[in-house]
Design goal:
Elements: H1 2-10, H2 12-23, H3 35-51, E1 57-59, E2 66-70, E3 79-85, E4 105-107, E5 110-112, H4 116-136, E6 143-149, H5 159-165, H6 167-170, E7 174-177, E8 189-194, E9 196-205, E10 211-212, H7 213-216, H8 223-233, H9 255-263, H10 268-275, H11 288-294, E11 297-305, E12 315-316, E13 319-328, H12 334-348, E14 354-363, E15 366-367, H13 373-386, E16 391-395, H14 402-409, E17 412-415, E18 431-433, H15 434-452
Parallel strand pairs: 3-6, 3-7, 7-17, 8-16
Antiparallel strand pairs: 1-2, 2-6, 4-5, 5-18, 8-15, 9-13, 9-14, 10-12, 11-13
Helix pairs in contact: 1-4, 1-15, 2-4, 4-15, 13-15
Bound molecules: ligand BES and manganese (II) ion (2 copies).
């Protein structure tokens, strides 16, 4: 392991340069005009595996390709599947970026670019950790399989069937994913729960075209008014979602969890300051951490109608639309929620309005086994690289494929985030600390050694 670590130390600058190369590729999976670029990012990842002597596959799907590679099998040792994504979210609004989103720039020890932390930087720590073993020791102490996709940010819909159809190929004891965060700078974490998501677009149509709001206003339903009324009805003043049955399956926070969260450092005042707000909102009876990690939500993600140009225009818009989503927690079922939502909206649709509800994507919430030998191995690896034992946290974001891995492969899932909450994921000026990139790489390399101490037949105790 010493020679592995020294390879990582002496290649610090090279690894940062490689990350910058990947960050220059605008692999925005949601935008069809970027399809060739998105593919190029996948091919770039494959070339990394090729350069370390592996035989990567770039696997076509109905959407963006998957990249698969594996190191040689190591008999009677556990097998790990390492998952990540090379696609990124759209960078807009562009004028808020200090340096352009696809021109990676280092400031103050952070590399700024879209995808820096989510997930190109975090994903590469595992690629570089494996490279370090191969280049210094010549081989790994366990077999590592990589499955890197290009559609995480659009819901992983093509990966889903692939996992089910390739159980043998992907067979493993544990799945390792670095696509989330540490608790805070200097406080590494293991994430044992994620929220799920159900994402929709609601399109309302009224009159056959835009109308003069004086001539016609007051006599027909304005689609923008109808939209805001419907959206407002989806939630009460405390943030409780009003879709019937929405809370039926929600797994409540345990007393133990609430106590552990109270012990975590940081205040709500600091939290407000970090996001630049002067007040907070949320479901009554829960702390900000509990609301973010373990309670379901409703949030509007985009809202469009009427005149958006300069000055005033007295128009009654013919259409209005909104993108919105619910964050879900275990054991809410996205399909059930879609059915309840559709009924809720249809029942309240005012006269003269037609609706279309697009169900963009859905994924259930995640809870992983806490009492697992793999968890203990990860904690030891993190402590060795970050100089401090990790805290156990949940997070509010979603990684749609996680439950599929757990169900189809019967593997333990390790969510090892190297990012920070202020990395600006999905926002302008996304960044990743080059120290976290380095420590993440050291932790990844150490993890393969820790897991090599386990017997592949050891099973976790599901909580
Ligand atoms: N890496 C994030 C998920 C994440 C964010 C986990 C923060 C933990 C903390 C991932 O790339 C992501 O953004 N997922 C989407 C899911 C989606 C588009 C289906 C999300 O959470 O919005
Ligand atoms: Mn991600
Ligand atoms: Mn993301």
């Amino acid at each position: 392991m010493d020679s592995v670590s020294s390879y990582i130390e002496s290649n610090r600058d090279q690894f940062a340069a490689d990350l910058a190369e990947l960050l220059r590729i605008p692999s925005i999976s949601a935008q069809a005009e970027k399809n060739a670029e998105t593919r190029r990012a996948g091919e770039w990842v494959a070339s990394q595996f090729k350069n370390m002597g592996l035989k990567p596959e770039v696997i076509p799907t109905k959407g963006h390709p998957l990249v698969y590679a594996e190191t040689p099998a190591v008999p009677s040792k556990p097998v790990v599947l390492c998952y990540g994504h090379y696609d990124v979210q759209p960078p807009e609004p562009l004028d808020e970026w200090i340096s352009p989103p696809f021109e990676p720039t280092v400031r103050d020890g952070n590399i700024f670019a879209r995808g820096a932390t989510d997930d190109k930087g975090q994903m590469l720590t595992h690629v570089k950790g494996v490279e370090a073993w191969i280049k210094s020791v010549g081989k790994l102490p366990i077999q590592v399989k990589f499955l890197i996709e290009g559609e995480e940010e659009v819901g992983s819909q093509n990966l889903e069937p692939y996992v089910g159809q390739n159980r043998e190929k992907l067979a493993c004891n544990a799945v390792v994913i670095s696509d989330c965060s540490q608790f805070a700078p200097g406080i590494p974490a293991i994430t044992y729960g994620l929220r799920g998501i159900a994402y929709y677009e609601l399109k309302l149509r009224g009159p056959k075209q835009d109308l003069h709001s004086g001539t016609f206003g007051g006599a027909i339903t304005n689609p923008a008014n109808a939209l805001t009324t419907l959206l407002a009805a989806l939630r009460d003043k405390d943030g409780r979602v009003q879709v019937p049955g929405f809370y039926d399956e929600v797994v409540p926070l345990t007393d133990r969890e609430r106590e552990e969260y109270r012990k975590l450092p940081g205040t709500e005042a600091e939290f407000m300051q970090s996001v630049g707000v002067t007040g907070m909102f949320g479901e009554a009876g829960y702390s900000a951490i509990e609301r973010r990690w373990a309670r379901p939500t409703f949030d509007i993600n985009g809202l469009t109608s009427g005149y958006q140009g300069e000055g005033a225009k007295t128009v009654l818009p013919a259409k209005a639309s909104a993108k919105f989503s619910f964050r879900l927690v275990p054991n809410q079922d996205p399909t059930k929620i879609t059915n309840g939502l559709r009924k809720f909206l249809e029942e309240r649709l005012p006269p003269g309005i037609q609706m279309e509800l697009v169900d963009h994507h859905g994924a259930p919430g995640v809870m992983v086994a806490l009492e697992s030998p793999y968890m203990a191995a990860a904690a030891a690896a993190i402590e060795s690289a970050f100089g401090r034992a990790p805290v156990m946290i949940r997070e509010g974001g979603s990684i749609p494929i996680v439950n599929t891995f757990a169900d189809e492969l019967g593997a333990d899932v390790l969510l090892l985030g190297w990012g920070q909450n202020d990395d600006n994921t999905h926002s302008p000026n996304e960044k990743f600390s080059l120290d976290d990139y380095h420590r993440g790489t050291l932790a990844s390399a150490a993890l393969w050694e820790q897991i090599a101490k386990l017997s592949p037949t050891e099973k976790s105790k599901k909580k």
